[in-house]
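User: Can you recover a sequence for this backbone? Please restate the input before giving your answer.

Assistant: Of course. Working from this structure:
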């Protein structure tokens, strides 16, 4: 597939649609334009939200077993296209082909596992005078905003539980990595009833309009802390329910009895897996003074053995940072 000439479309109300404007998607290994993705218009956003709202009562009314049966067909459709999708992910995200394959392995495993979950009723009290039951009921229209570091895994982590619970979903991938998610949406076009799953792409204007929209009932967002603050602020006017998975500041600790030769590669990859673009990556290392000099020397030596380059090349162990802004942030 020639990505530069491939037409990518959004999924709205059961149909694949183009947009009159586009956003460029850049290959981070070459910093050249890889493809053009649709830039969702205000009218298309309204159509997607209206479709999700209209589809909600019937989807909720299907019941969990009927929803489960449809959702369980999603993973095989992705699985049949993993080589193509992995290559596309590497081209737009930068991670190695092996890492892209691992992301799809994890995605498929989670999709299949999440689809088996139940929504049991919990009887809190049942006496002659009082009955208290907790039921988990769908909320409505869920806006799922996924990031560029794990664009597929963190999309379907959100989509599958929301759909299983009886919600309808509007999925918006990062404008930096929309292509693989849009391609998967194309594979799903005839699977679910129209409006149940909508997939939109667009520039920086799209997220704020989606999260502030009064017809969106819940927001699930994975991304930076500053953006999370803005989402919470925009959601407050309509008291939307919000789930935020933001950045971390995780530590690794090297104790006096540590085997330095063993832990150096472990800590290196805990910090630099996915080129360090992981919310739970080790960002601080506390080293006992007895080990500090030896650890530092061996850590630097190990780092010099790691091959950084284009993720499509077979000997690459670490791909580039995904975008220029992230690169500049790391440099400074």
């Amino acid at each position: 597939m020639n990505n530069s000439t491939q037409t990518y479309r959004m999924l709205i109300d059961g149909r694949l649609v183009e947009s009159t404007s586009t956003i460029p998607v850049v290959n981070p290994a070459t910093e050249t334009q890889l493809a053009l993705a649709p830039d969702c218009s205000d009218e298309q956003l309204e159509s997607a939200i209206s479709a999700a709202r209209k589809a909600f009562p019937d989807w909720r009314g299907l019941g969990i077993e009927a929803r489960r049966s449809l959702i369980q067909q999603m993973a095989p459709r992705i699985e049949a296209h993993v080589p193509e999708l992995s290559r596309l992910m590497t081209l737009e995200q930068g991670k190695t082909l092996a890492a892209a394959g691992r992301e799809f392995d994890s995605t498929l495993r989670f999709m299949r596992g999440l689809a088996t979950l139940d929504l049991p009723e919990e009887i809190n009290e049942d006496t002659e005078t009082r009955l208290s039951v907790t039921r988990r009921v769908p909320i409505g229209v869920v806006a799922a905003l996924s990031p560029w570091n794990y664009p597929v895994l963190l999309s379907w982590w959100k989509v599958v539980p929301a759909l299983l619970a009886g919600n309808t979903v509007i999925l918006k991938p990062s404008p930096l990595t929309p292509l693989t998610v849009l391609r998967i949406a194309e594979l799903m076009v005839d699977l679910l009833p129209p409006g149940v799953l909508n997939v939109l792409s667009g520039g920086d204007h799209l997220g704020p309009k989606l999260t502030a929209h009064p017809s969106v009932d819940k927001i699930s967002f994975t991304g930076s802390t500053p953006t999370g603050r803005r989402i919470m602020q925009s959601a407050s006017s309509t008291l939307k329910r919000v789930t935020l998975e933001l950045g971390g500041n995780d530590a690794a600790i090297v104790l006096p009895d540590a085997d330095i030769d063993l832990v150096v590669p472990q800590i290196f990859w805990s910090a630099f897996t996915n080129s360090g673009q992981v919310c739970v990556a080790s960002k601080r290392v506390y080293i006992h003074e007895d080990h500090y000099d030896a650890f530092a020397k061996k850590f630097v030596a190990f780092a010099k053995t790691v091959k950084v380059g284009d993720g499509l090349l077979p000997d690459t162990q670490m791909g580039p940072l995904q975008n220029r802004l992230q690169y500049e942030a790391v440099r400074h």
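That completes the design. The CA atoms of residues 31 and 323 lie 8 Å apart.
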